[in-house]
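User: Sequence in, structure out. Go.
Assistant: Echoing your sequence, followed by the structure tokens.
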Amino acid sequence: MFRSEYADVPAIELPIHEAVLARAAEFGDAPALVDGTDGTTLTYEQLDRFHRRIAAALTDAGVRKGDVLALHSPNTIAFPTAFYGATRAGASVTLVHPLATPEEFAKQLGDSSARWIVTVSPLLQTARRAAEIAGGVREIFVCDTAPGHRSLIDMLASAAPEPVVDIDPARDVAVLPYSSGTTGTPKGVMLTHRQIATNLAQLEPALADRSGDRILAVLPFFHIYGLTALMNAPLRLGATVVVLPRFELNTFLAAIQNHRITSLYVAPPIVLALAKHPAVAQYDLSSLKYIVSAAAPLDARLAAACSQRLGLPPVGQAYGMTELSPGTHVVPLDAMRDAPAGTVGKLIAGTEMRIVSLDDPDKDLGVGESGEILIRGPQVMKGYLGRPEATTAMIDTDGWVHTGDVGHVDADGWLFVVDRVKELIKYKGFQVAPAELEALLLTHPGIADAAVIGAYNDDGNEVPHAHVVRQPTATGLSEGEVMMYVAERVAPYKRVRKVTFIDAVPRAASGKILRRQLREPA
């Protein structure tokens, strides 16, 4: 068993809005949230006051403890006020992808039994249709304005009394994100107030004081990584969060330059853009102090290329999953220059880990041996909503979460994630990690992006099948050239046996490759 080097932290027995905004009065007029496109700013005092007014108005509208409210919005400065207002009113918040179809949205509404929706006017048609399909939705609110719908802006003038709700942090669900569905049907992940608040405290020793940080929130708040790293954690510590609704490279780079961003929490596709895209050279990014990447594997060479180009410490990584609130590992900020290349970090406070054999799950492995990663700690989810069998399959009787990720630990406690158990390709009995081949493909100057899946050939063998996005200047790049490039650099059993050229690699908002979408046509 591997244990954290950090001292345990006490569980945070507070509702999430109290755990995050407890110091709002202390931070006062300091900017909490800034719209990265038009500069609109909310101070900590305003954020605290506004979310309390929204909680009062939601309560007045009929929201009660135990209700589920669906928050359906891109990143805006209103998102945190809606989230904390809902939790202060006693609701659990289920987070909905802004690009969900009405049918996908309706399925989540039905599964979560959501009775309330908060959305934005551009998405209102989708929200209305989803509510019609699902049934049971009592009211749809908007963050901005729309005829026939109550607005959060109007709610700020509510004279209703602030609700006093008896929240049990250990039992009551604060947030109900849905798993990405990359390996199966999306499931509601029940995360209690104590679990997500304690995870913030667990992360703090490794991330140090960030009260002066200016963080760019471009990854979505509706994903647990964005909710934690870009909303809850920085607002708890007094940082300024500059908000962008989506990733568009030039807007992103301009925001770093104009708002003097100090810290980036991103996914590998953004690291790739920072390392390779010519537009990066047109902007002043000198305010940046560090970059952390998570949500998907990041190749060490790509990380090095990014940091060298920007003149920064090596890009640090973090590791976790929705079912773990989400963090378990991070490269400490004070160790970024010394951490070994490719590591996703060390165990955060209060967290335990085992590495078990892929062939014999009862066999624990030691330093340097690769196996499935198991995690235990106070951040482990309450369970999957309405799916006790799936919960039991994920969390064993001793409280260990079986992550489905393959990795190994070195003698100094650094974790290296190899790949997903279910994504490993078995070629004639040999295991091939798609992430390794993807990282290699990205070193080819003619390849802009790549994804690898297992596909069966005419002999019934599972072989590596690369899906490749050409650089605009490499339109003549052929299948044979790609296969030869890989063959010259890997063992024979790892060779790419098929190449398909595509316009873009399908990814979730978190940056994870949606391999299922590539497998379906294959």
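User: And one key feature?
Assistant: The chain is about 30% helix and 25% strand.
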